[in-house]
Amino acid sequence: MNPIVLFDGVCNFCDASVQFIIKNDPKGKFRFAPLQSDIGQKLLKQYHFFSHVDSIVLIEEDKTYCKSDAALRICRHLKGLWKLTYILIIIPAPARNFVYDVLARNRYKWFGKKDSCVLPSSDVRRRFLS
């Protein structure tokens, strides 16, 4: 099963992050679903997350990761030097997640918010779960 990234579908920063992953994942390994979507909510329940989770979630090999763990594990699979960011996993999770939480709390204020999830272009749509 391909890894699945659940993301905030109305957050401009999260949308830009998904576009970044797509651009740096030339093999098309990752699949995506907005947290707000039916499939996103179904997967959250299946993996015992609260439906109001406010973090990126990675489902990989039937395990789940969120916050900085998810972000670093995603980077590990990207092309180029982004793989090297995985070394930050040696920093204790509370310290990494402190930085993650500051960004998450302020993402709408700093980057804006959409009224709804944006549909991807047809060439990338196949990577989004529905």
TrEMBL record:
Pfam families: DCC1-like (PF04134)
InterPro entries reported in the protein's UniProt record: DCC1-like, DCC_oxidoreductase
Organism superkingdom: Bacteria
Name recorded for this polypeptide: Thiol-disulfide oxidoreductase
Organism annotation: Siminovitchia terrae
